[in-house]
Structures are given as C-alpha cells and as structure tokens.
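fyi for ur records
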Amino acid sequence: MYRVDQNSSVEQLSRVQMSTPSVSRGKSRRSVHSSHSSLKGTAMSELARLKEREQVLLEELCKVRVAAQAQKNRIDDLFKQQMLPAPIIRLPPTALSDILYRVICDTHPEPDAHRLTKRQLAGVSRRWRDTILNSANFWTTIALNNSWSPSLVMAHVDRSRGLLSTSS
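which gave:
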C-alpha cells in the first residue's frame, strides 16, 4: 500500500496507479479500482484534516489580530495621555502669576524669605521662571538688610517697573 500525504503530487499518484501489478484482467480491474478508491479515500481524509487545521489556524490568527489591535489601542492611549499637558501647564499666565504671587506673599516675613521663595519657585520650570521674572508685582517688596547687594536691589527696582514699595 502506498501512503499519500500533503506533499504527494498528481505525478506520484499516477506512478502508484501504473506500478500496481495486474494479475488477471478481471482481478486487476478490481484491484486497481480498490487501490484507486483507497488512495482517493486517503486523499479525501487528508484534505479534510487540512481544512480543519486551516480553520483552527484562521481562528487563532483572528484572535491574534484582535489582541494586537487591543495592544495598539492601549499604546495609543498612553501616548495621548502623555501628549496632554499637565493641568498646571494649561493655566493662563495671569492665573499662574496670581498663584505664584500668593505663595510668595504667604511666606513668613523673615529676612530674604520672599527672595528665597522666588528663587525656589523660579527653579521649577522655565515657564514659572519667566512668569516670575516678567511680572512686576513679584519685585515690589525689598526687605533691605546686609545680605542685599546693590546689584540685587537694582534688579528688584528694574523688574518692579515703578510699582516698588520699600520696607526696612
């Protein structure tokens, strides 16, 4: 008996049929017919097995595609979340200036407290630094003492743009 598998070709099947011995006319026909039926049955069962395997693979491929799309969506969501600026960044400049001003004004009136608080807040980000440096109201209080150099006093006067009030 000859084995037929998925790699068998038509040419190989023909050779199998040709190489079947013929004993007698009547018997050989039945034998060839039987052999042919056997080959046909084997080929049909192999085709059925392959179709079942194809169906399993298609279902698996569909599941993989769904999982890949879900993962892509998760990644897209992560990027979207990162692209949204933080709420503090979305504040209008005037609102940010008001908040920073209140923080600075709420510091204890110790010598240089306002100056140190401004320095700390200006170190948070470029936007906060620019807001503090470019808003005149941050520079209107000068608590004169020995730690203030003439250049620091002049920087406060220049940045205050005429809104200066002094205390000693």
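The longest strand covers residues 141-143. thats all i got for now
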